[in-house]
Amino acid sequence: MRRPLVAVVAALVVAAPATASPPPVAATAYYVENGATGEVLAGHRASTRVPVASITKLMTVLVALERAGVDDVVVASPAAASIGESTIGLRAGERISVGDLVEAALVQSANDAAWALAAHVGNGDVNAFVRLMNAKARALGLRSTHFVRPDGLDVPGHVSTARDVTLLARVAMRNPVIRSIVDDRTATIAGGRRLHTWNDLLGTFPGVIGVKTGHTAGAGWSQVAAARGTGFVLYATILGSATRSQRNADLSALLRWGLSRYAVVPVVDSGRPYARAELGYGLGTVALVAPRSVLRAARVDRPLRERVVAATAVELPVRKGQRFGQVRVYDGSRLVASSPLVAARSIGRPSAGSRARWYATRAWESIWP
């Protein structure tokens, strides 16, 4: 009969670095989040509603791709061709694919491309498309977001927050088309148009894989960025920097700091005995181990908690690899990893003669202690 043992052990995974607080940021708002777990690492005025400029185009493209195929052909309207500031120079009546417009909106941040997508999906009614954008925002839980235009140019009531922008970026990055575009520094589309990104961190900050910049007089210099760590993606959003260089410097500092909060460690170690089970017949114990190590990105500034449930005694024979328990590793209430615990070696059942001698010895010892 196996007797269960429950053990709870808290252990600090790795010592925290000296810089425990986020770096200073000169912007209206910022927000840093682990995209794998949703854990918020830092934020300042993250729920303050502010203009977000061309970051809007993440929603524009997301809604457009839900209702149109990348190979669909769009006929550029005069209204789209007349939109100014950052554009690809669409001409009224020009035929261009949805896919090319999506690339232009995300890489070049082209306002005319965003407007053409909206008019196409809205059957000529851009306001109807904007209503779809706002319905999508509500469905995603972007509680403080309201869109008025598909391009993000300044207009009263067109606002979002650092928190909402980060969530929008996370959702957008689940779309394979968007994900394949937002890490492009350049691209070429219809008419030989050469696109160039406004995302200065692409190619300069290791691991950055997107996602979108924005700038208007009302919004300042803003950006939501995603950087790949080992085993997770970190998101950082800055809204309302005074200059492009200030935005880049502060966003880089936030990403470096956020990535430094984690270290990849063996949360389950195959070389460690997690428990020992009695074998009986005077044969001692057998170590219960994990079949393989499990690596995870863990916070460096707080301990993980282990819960081990294992047998304290086992019946012979025992086969190497035979399961006798489990270890679970938690970060707070979140399960980080789990592994079976198995016998580290095989032990055969003693012969009848050996068992008889062991029982005789035990009987003699009970008489003559």
**What is the number of E strands?**
17
- CATH homologous superfamily designation of the largest domain: DD-peptidase/beta-lactamase superfamily
- Identify the strand order in the major beta sheet: 1-15-16-17-13-12
Tally of individual helices: 9
- Architecture (CATH level 2) name of the largest domain: 3-Layer(aba) Sandwich
- What is the share of helical residues? 25-40%
Which parts are unreliable, with pLDDT below 50 for 5 consecutive residues or more? none
CA radius of gyration:
29 Å
Quote the beta fraction.
25-35%
CATH class of the largest domain: Alpha Beta
Which structural class best describes the helix and strand composition?
alpha+beta
What would the CATH topology of the largest domain be? Beta-lactamase
Quick structural summary:
This protein has 369 residues and is an alpha+beta fold. It has 2 domains: 4-13 and 265-367, D-Ala-D-Ala carboxypeptidase, C-terminal domain (Peptidoglycan synthesis regulatory factor (PBP3), Domain 2); 29-241, 3-Layer(aba) Sandwich (Beta-lactamase). It has helices at residues 57-67, 78-82, 98-108, 111-121, 126-140, 162-172, 176-181, 244-260, 352-367, and strands at residues 4-11, 29-34, 40-44, 73-75, 95-97, 186-189, 193-196, 208-216, 220-228, 233-241, 262-268, 275-278, 285-289, 294-299, 304-311, 323-331, 334-343.
